[in-house]
Amino acid sequence: MVDKAQSLGIDLISLPLIIEPMSEPDRAATKEKFLQFLDQKNLRITSQRRAIVDTVFSTDQHFTAEQLLEWAREKDSSVSRATVYRTLPLLTESGLVHEMDFGKDYKIYDPNYAAHPNHNHIICNDCDKIVEFESERLDALENEISGKLGFEVQSQQLTINASCEEMKRVGACKNKGE
Ligand SMILES: [Zn+2]
Ligand SMILES: [Zn+2]
User: Fold this and answer.
1) Which of 26, 48, 95, 117 could be stapled to 22 by a disulfide with Cβ–Cβ 3.0 to 4.6 Å?
2) What is the pTM of this model?
3) How far is the CA of 126 from the centre of ligand 2 (A)?
């Protein structure tokens, strides 16, 4: 795609850049930070909580509370819904996981903020497929708009609600809720 863009003379800086999943060592380091955060709050790391934390920091997927419960139970079948719902606010409070509202009747959690604090999302309205991207052109535009209005950008995240390939083609997505 890059070669094609270059041969067409497209300005690469202006293309949105799909962000890479966080590397294994980065995820491990982020998990360590969260364990320290729990420690500072004098919160015990129970085996249930350990399974939840291991799950969150071993995926680069966005997840809902119910997905997290399901995945964590694969590691430790004793994980309770209540513990998941008590742990999620701690994860967001630590700043290492972001709670996102895409206008659905559930929140989606994003574990990829530690490496990319200002990334953007495009989400399929039907199956919740998410692609994360950064764009220097978008950043420049946001800086320009903010500057003209007398503001300075502190953080930015753009969300595009859209139809994925499959929804465009057949009008509905097979893999809903996965
Ligand atoms: Zn994200
Ligand atoms: Zn879709």
Assistant:
1) 26
2) 0.82
3) 5
